[in-house]
Amino acid sequence: MIKYMQLFHGTAFTSISPKKIKILKDHLFCVNADGIIERIVAPEDSDYQSLLDAYQGKDNFHRLAEGQYFLPGFIDLHVHAPQWAQSGTALDIPLYDWLNTYTFPLESKFSDLRFAGEVYEDVVGTLLANGTTTALYFATVHKEASLLLAEICAKKGQRGLVGKVVMDDPQQNPENYRDKDTVTALADTEEFILAVKELAKSAKQGVYPVVTPRFIPSCTDDALKGLGELAAKYDTYIQSHCSESDWAHGYVRDRFQKNDAFALHDFGLLRDKSVMAHCNFLSDEDAALFADTGTAIAHCPISNAYFANSVIPVAHFHDKGVEIGLGSDISGGFSPSLFDNIRQAVISSRMLEDGVNPSLPSGDRGVPNSRLTIHEAFYLATAGGGESLSLPIGRIQESYAWDVQIIDTKQPSAKLPIFDENEALDDIFQKIMYLARPEHIREVWVQGEKVHSR
Ligand code: GUN
Ligand code: FE
């Protein structure tokens, strides 16, 4: 009867569509040696009791206490790992100034592997403690330090997708923080891809190299073209910033007379494994190109409020068939928590609805069909992220990875306000979404391995 590596018992919440969650009350989750959910057994299934009897009291049986729930681990589609060192600072200035006066000087320090290691250990640990089981990272231009970030993900058990950043244009980037030249930028990227692929052989949860032109303004045409070719040659993920702010979007229009989406596509950078951050100025034509190529959007609601004064119409892009997940954009977004980004996604979307401000003439602001529910924002942070990466993650479902966070609503020093023992589970779910903090995340599991507990 002991046929599964591990058996988990409890109530889980998972998305089944953007608008709908499924509540698996008191189910059994059978996880195999590869860390995959092999079977989910409901209380009414015939072997439920016999499975429980067989595993009770064993080391590989994990039963949730009262008030605890399983959620899928979060998938953060856009994190600048080095910028963790400046999170929470300098958000009152525009993107261009922020990059040049704060961000590039900070990132240049990651040539120092000791400093890089200190920050990267901390950011990966912090994201895990916030329930993020998979993260798509920008590192810096430095090949060695970028590899160190992938190694730290592998060691700590987080599923990390990591990019060595390319910024090769000497006209656009500071002298002390850019690739030496285009040839070196491409050679370093190729070496980095090969090194991460090697590392991946010993990381059960997966680590992946990501081709990473920072954004069009930082790269020459030759670099963009070469990166598109490398991504095709090694079938890698691709990430960049797309149509983020007035300035960045306008720069690309001046240089190519087209929007970022079509410019990136010309260089082979929009593929099924592409994830583009922000996309505040995406036209319907751009969105159709995203849908055709399988390119996903990393929606970064906190950062967009600061750098773009903008809210993207998520539901509208979903209707157009575009895959969308959620990104913290540390440190353009100050918070390492996707719970915070879920909340901001909902709040921002409510401010985008048409006709919200009665003192303005109708139609002067607002986008119809932009309002998101908390269930939809949860979808973005979980299932939407998994779809964006084309990986079987982000859902508590058979044949998906056992990537979960265990939420404790009765955490003694921080109880959630649940006073009725028969409260509807969907209401409890909403309270978790709005009120959970890292204190409530008791354990985090990735690919069947416990990677965090408190
Ligand atoms: N555009 C280019 N680089 C960056 C960055 O580091 N953060 C954000 N938010 N936008 C960018
Ligand atoms: Fe960013």
Describe this structure in words.
It is an enzyme of class 3 (hydrolase). Its EC number is 3.5.4.3. Pathway: Purine metabolism; guanine degradation; xanthine from guanine: step 1/1. With 454 residues, the chain is of the alpha/beta class. Helices cover 37% and strands 21% of the residues. The protein is built from 15 helices and 17 strands. It has helices at residues 48-55, 95-108, 113-129, 143-156, 182-200, 221-234, 246-256, 260-266, 284-293, 301-307, 314-319, 338-352, 374-381, 383-389, 425-435; strands spanning 6-15, 21-31, 37-41, 61-63, 68-72, 74-80, 132-138, 159-163, 165-166, 207-213, 237-242, 274-278, 296-299, 323-326, 404-408, 441-446, 449-453. Strands 6, 7, 8, 9, 10, 11, 12, 13 and 14 form a nine-stranded parallel β-sheet that branches. Strands 1, 2, 3, 4, 5, 15, 16 and 17 form an eight-stranded mixed β-sheet that branches. The longest helix is centred in the middle third of the chain and has 19 residues, at 182-200. The mean pLDDT is 95. Bound molecules: guanine and fe (iii) ion (FE). The site of fe (iii) ion has 6 residues, from β6.
